[in-house]
Specification:
Number of domains: 2
CATH topology of the largest domain: BirA Bifunctional Protein, domain 2
CATH superfamily of the largest domain: Bira Bifunctional Protein, Domain 2
Largest sheet: 8 strands, mixed
Length: 465
């Protein structure tokens, strides 16, 4: 008999259908009348199936009455009408097989309130809780929606390398990859330099902070591509919004300018938010009721709104005239902080905002220099509650300008010879953006800490599991 998922069993309205259910016991209640109720869940939905187990089963005394929370069982039974309030049906067990016992005296996930901080110490068990099961299903839906969005529009999925010799952002916060013996590092020039010729790759290499530069290679051959994979940043930050390992989706489009980039970003957010509301309705209702009672309203507001578009200069003027006492003072030429971005989206416009044309000095070398020589064709998509959710730009396609920008930011153009070749041989206008998966999931679910929306968080001094 095919195993029936619990999400299927809950949808079955034909009483009398025989099913085979497998899952983990959430609760067991015993009646003096000679039967037990087991709440069973297999992770396919946040809802449990109630199973009626009668004492007439041959293993009732020897096994059923020993199945505590966390035990795994296989149940064959029939769907029957339920007299209980709030449920249409339940399953009457005809046989029950215990697959694995969990001792209730030591099982960590008891039926009581448990802090998220404590659950982070047991990433191997926390997916069994309602909250983390719901996060996993929402994360899955967002990932599925991302792929569907780009695939349905003719984008080609490109897998870019995790190990790279290039620093895309030029920030230097990269994890070094080496096979050298750290207790006996080979050196040159009297010990002042590391001899990377003896390393595995024969040169300094790092974990990537972005797949963008490699994505540009394929965009300038295939027109529209996207990457979706893990990225790494060795930033010593313990805030609720930072991870050392996180996933990024980065589309790149040839023959596209900043305007087209903004259009795609707005459509992209509205699409994935719409699909998560439609396809994860039960889980999203749970987050709205238990975590943040504004998540449904916020997502619906974004889906229904027309994003505001204004320049960085206009935003600075608005902030300076606001009369607000910001923690970080606002002036032209400084990067905007989350408090500034939230003021624009929550108080000034009360909807998402796309800021453009940032000062060139605070943006990466690959962003296209504007005609004024002071700004670049960059964009940040800001949403209420968190601020920036997408960052992107039109890329600098002019060889001479790109070389000048690299040198100004302390980069050696020779290290990026292949990137410059894209400008030497058939260069075209192109643009793209990046969206952090974990920050998006944190925003969608209302979870307070980004370490709770990735299965196995990596942060300073934390690399368990």
């Amino acid at each position: 008999m095919r195993r029936t998922r619990i999400i299927e069993a809950l949808l079955l309205d034909n009483v009398g259908k025989q099913v085979r259910l497998c899952g983990w016991v959430r609760t067991r209640r015993d009646s003096k009348a000679g039967f037990s109720f087991i709440e069973l869940n297999d992770g396919s939905t946040i809802k449990n199936v109630q199973v009626l187990v009668e004492s007439s089963l041959p293993n009732y005394e020897s096994e059923v009455l020993k199945t505590g929370i966390g035990s795994s069982v296989e149940i064959i039974g029939t769907i029957v009408s339920s007299p209980a309030k709030g449920q249409l049906s339940e399953v009457k067990a005809e046989s029950i097989k215990v697959l694995g016992f969990a001792d209730p005296a030591v099982y960590p996930l008891q039926k009581k309130g448990t802090s998220f901080e404590f659950l982070r110490t047991m990433a191997h068990l926390r997916p069994r809780t309602n909250t983390f099961g719901a996060i996993a299903r929402v994360r899955n839906e967002i990932c599925r929606s991302i792929h569907e969005f780009f695939q349905s529009r003719g984008f080609i999925y490109v897998q870019t390398p995790i190990i790279t010799a290039s620093d895309c952002e030029g920030a230097g916060q990269m994890f070094r990859v080496t096979t050298l013996d750290l207790a006996n590092v080979p050196r040159l020039n009297g010990g002042t330099e590391v001899d990377f010729e003896q390393d595995f790759f024969g040169r300094p290499t790092n974990l990537t902070v972005s797949g963008q530069l490699e994505a540009e290679i394929y965009a300038l051959a295939l027109s529209n591509v996207y990457t979706f994979g893990p990225t790494f940043r060795a930033e010593n930050s313990n805030t609720s919004r930072h991870l050392a390992e996180f996933w990024m989706v980065e589309p790149e489009m040839a023959f596209c300018d900043l305007e087209g980039n903004m259009d795609l970003a707005e459509e992209f957010l509205k699409t994935i938010f719409s699909q998560v509301l439609s396809n994860c309705h039960v889980d999203m209702t749970f987050f709205n009721e238990r975590i943040d009672n504004t998540v449904l309203e916020t997502l619906k507001g974004i889906i229904d709104s027309q994003f505001v578009r204004l320049s960085y200069t206009e935003a600075v003027d608005i902030l300076k005239r606001s009369g607000e006492s910001f923690e970080f003072p606002v002036s032209w030429g400084v990067d905007l902080q989350s408090e500034h971005e939230r003021y624009l989206t929550e108080k000034t416009f009360k909807k998402p905002v796309i800021l453009t044309d940032y000062p060139s000095d605070i943006k990466a070398f690959y962003m296209r220099l504007s005609d004024d020589g002071r700004t670049v064709s960059a964009m940040d998509v800001l949403v209420p509650k968190i601020g920036e959710i997408i960052g992107g730009s039109q890329r600098e396609e002019r060889l001479e300008v790109l070389e000048t920008r690299m040198k100004a930011q302390g980069l050696n153009p020779e290290d990026y010879w292949w990137y410059l070749d894209l400008r030497r041989f058939g260069t075209v206008p192109h643009a793209g953006f990046g969206l952090g998966l974990e920050r998006t999931i944190q925003f969608v679910t209302g979870m307070g800490n980004i370490r709770d929306v990735i299965p196995f968080p990596r942060a300073p001094k934390s690399a368990e599991f």
